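As a warm-up, study this chain.
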Amino acid sequence: MILYGAPVSPFVRKVLAFAVEKGVALELVPIGLGDENPDFLSCSPFRKMPGFTDGDFSISDSTAIVTYIDAKHPEVPLIPTDPANRARAIWFDEFADTILTAAAGAIFFNRIVSPKFIGKSGDDAAVAKGEADMIPVCQYLESVIKPSGYLVGDSLTLADISVASPFVNAAHAGYVPDAATYPKLTAYLAAIHARPSFSDWIRRERKVLGLG
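Now compare it with the structure written out below.
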C-alpha cells in the first residue's frame, strides 16, 4: 500500500495514524504543493491529498482510504459496525474534515505555511478568525467526550483519529485549547497524541517545520 501526501496535512496524518492503529504497513511517498508526480496524479487527478494505491486499486480522499483499509483488514475494526456508533464515527470524521480543519487550518496556514513555505506574511485577521471559530469547536468537544476517554464507545475509533489530527496542526502553530476552560478536551488530546500512531509523526513534523 502506498500513500502519497505530506504528513503535515491533517488528512494525510489521519490515514497514517489509522494505518498504525490497524497494524497495516504503508509506504509514504512525500508530495508537496503543486507536485506533478505522475503516480500521485493517477490516483488523485484533482490533486486531492492524500492519494493511495494498493496494487491495481487507487483512490484519493482520506475518508475513502481509511474505509478501504478498515474493510480490507477487519481484524482491528476502527469504524464501528453497530449502526448508531458507525453513524457517530462518520459524523465526527466529517466534523473534523470540515468544521474543525477549517478553523485550525486558518491558524496553521497563516502562522506556518505562508511564512515558511510561501514566503509571505500570514494574515493576522485570518488567524484571529480561526481562533474564534475554535471556541464553539472546543465547547462542543468538551461536552461530548465520554467517560471512557473516547468520542464513540469505549475504545479508539476513526472518530478520535480524525478529530485529534487537526489539533496537531493547531499546536504546531501555537494554538492549544485552554486547559482550565476545557479540561476534558485537554486530557483527551494529550492521551490521543501520546499514542505512537501520533507521537512518532508529531516529532518528525516538528523537526521538519523547525519547531524543535
